[in-house]
Structure to design on (305 residues):
């Protein structure tokens, strides 16, 4: 596989547009309801597969109907899910997302089996064979905060695998805990709030510089409608977002990661990879769910695999 996505797997149930929660037993009629594969590993893996990138996913789900659905839909999109373990008696992580008319997305979430993912669940040979290893949601996969796993990351990087990392939550204690991974990854892709929390800085430029000093080769801070900031040892560049009619912001960060990773795996430079991430995120923002807008790839300059 060109890419292995390791980490958080979630089932999302999305509904739009939701202006309020009905009182009592009232019913509001909506335009659309979808159920999708999501999470910082699973959502990114599905987007990569839709972009034509050979991708495998690794993580943990419950031995339940939600887990059945998640593996089925990922496999249908072309993701190799043989690295996803099933946890008897545990629930697959799931979220209910009522999408506001402006695209905002409050959530109701059960973390489920993601919390039990550990280094023992990871096949080292699968990681060694990847061109890019994407760590999705290391702030909530506490079992991977393990010196043995950090040593494995150092080993695969030394052998030529590029390691990228994205976060899932905006909870300060969890985000700060993920700083332990920074010396062991090549590129970290937090959103602005996460970058400020992790660095203790007041602005995105200062946060990116502080995170870069912790060890990665590059820091990419996603800024929502303001685009993204790409910082490496040689330069710091702001890339504007594309002007699109936003339907739902769910999964835009995962989509940006997918485009960025596709670019890196295809041999492109960091800025070109970030531009592809920008384009993919814009496609996803125009529809409902973390993989929306990626069935038609016309106009995207994608690498070939």
């Amino acid at each position: 596989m060109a890419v292995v996505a390791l980490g958080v797997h979630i089932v999302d149930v999305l509904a739009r547009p939701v202006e309020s929660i009905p009182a009592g037993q009232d019913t509001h009629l909506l335009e659309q309801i979808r159920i999708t594969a999501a999470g910082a590993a699973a959502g990114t893996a599905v987007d990569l597969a839709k972009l034509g990138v050979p991708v495998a996913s690794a993580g943990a789900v419950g031995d339940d109907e939600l887990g059945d659905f998640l593996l089925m839909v990922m496999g249908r999109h072309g993701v190799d899910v043989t690295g996803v373990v099933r946890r008897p008696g545990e629930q697959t992580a799931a979220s209910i997302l009522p999408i506001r008319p402006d695209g905002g997305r409050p959530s109701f979430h059960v973390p489920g089996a993601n919390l039990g993912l550990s280094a023992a669940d990871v096949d080292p040979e699968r990681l060694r064979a990847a061109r890019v290893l994407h760590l999705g949601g290391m702030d909530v996969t506490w079992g991977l905060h393990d010196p043995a796993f950090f040593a494995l990351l150092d080993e695969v990087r030394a052998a030529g695998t590029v390691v990228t990392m994205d976060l899932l939550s905006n909870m300060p204690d969890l985000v700060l805990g993920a700083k332990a991974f920074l010396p062991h990854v090549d590129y970290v892709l937090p959103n602005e709030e996460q970058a400020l929390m992790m660095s203790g800085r007041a602005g995105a430029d200062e946060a990116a510089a502080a995170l870069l000093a912790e060890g990665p080769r590059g820091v990419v801070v996603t800024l929502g409608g303001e685009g993204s900031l790409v910082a490496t040892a040689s330069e710091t560049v702001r890339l504007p977002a594309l002007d699109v009619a936003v339907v739902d912001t769910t999964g835009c960060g995962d989509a940006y990661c997918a485009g960025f990773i596709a670019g890196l795996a295809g041999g492109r430079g960091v800025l070109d990879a970030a531009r592809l991430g920008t384009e993919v995120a814009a496609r996803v923002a125009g529809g409902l769910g973390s993989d929306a807008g990626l069935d038609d790839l016309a106009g995207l300059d994608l690498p070939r695999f």
The two ends are 10 Å apart (CA to CA). The chain is about 30% helix and 25% strand.
